[in-house]
Every structure is written in C-alpha cells, then in structure tokens.
Amino acid sequence: LWVDELADKTKTLDSFITLQLKLENDKQPRKVTAIARDNDACYRSNAWKDYANEHGIQLEPQGPYRKQTAIERAMGTLGGGARAAVHHGRVPEHKMIISIEHTAFCINQRPHSSNPSRRSPMSMWTGVQNLKMSHRVREGVLFCLCYGHIYPEQRGKNALRSFPAIFNGCNPHD
Fold first, then answer.
1. pTM of the model
2. DSSP string over 143-156
3. pLDDT tens digits, one per residue of 10-45
C-alpha cells in the first residue's frame, strides 16, 4: 500500500504520476499497464483518459456500490486500523494522516499467508527474504497496542504465534 495525502480529489492524477514514476523506476523494465479505480468523477476526467491513452494504461472501472473489491477491502483494513490507532493512541483527529501512514507501514511489514513462506508485502516488493524493520522505527507517534509476529522457525509447535507490544510509530518515508 502507498499512501499520499491530497488536499482534494483534483490532485489524484498528479499523485498517481508521482507514484507511477517511483514504481517504474524501482521495478524497471516493468511498467504500469492498468489501474483499477472507482467511478468517482475525478477518475473519469479527460485528463485521466488522455494520460492513460498517452502511456498505454488501461483504466479499469469498478462497478458502483461494489464493496467487496480488493480495493475496498484494503481501504477498509487501512481505515479501520488507522481509526483504532487514533482512538487507542489518543491522537487528535487532525493527525489522521499520520495514523493512516503508520497503518499502511504495518500492513506492508506484516507477514501474509498468501505470499510464499509467509513473507510480508514489503519483503516481496524488495526481494529481501528476511526484511528487518527495526531501523525504521522512531519514537513517540502513536503508542498503540500491537502484536509482534513470531515466525514459525522461531517458535515451537504449540508456542505463541505473537506477543503483545506497544507500537511507537515509524517513519514511513525512510
């Protein structure tokens, strides 16, 4: 997941172009070829259509009121985690973007059963098998309850799979 704070929806194309350049630079020679999007007016503009045509990108609209798409599920996970962190960390509502960034960071770092060897999305993206995140943690942003994952090779058959901890936040731009 990548998160970018926008002043308003008219900035979606600019934000996408920045993300596209980052992704394509990081994963050369691969290119962005399709975008799954909702039917909001900001994604149906002529500017989006022109940009997509110019760069060979297929715009794939999702049907209206479809709440079970992969995008909607990811947004629900991201939003629910961010709201919980704001609530439990007693963070002011106007700092919600910090909570969203940190929630995205946690989602990207946690092991996932759909990936080979339960690797995290960030581990899959970078190609690093045992990606460590300790160098990215910084003090005192959210202070919320979290559970650290214990990898199968580090635990016994009937041992705990996680341990309770306090998440102090991280710098997602590191």
1. 0.66
2. -EEEEEE--GGGS-
3. 899 999 999 999 989 988 888 999 988 877 788 888
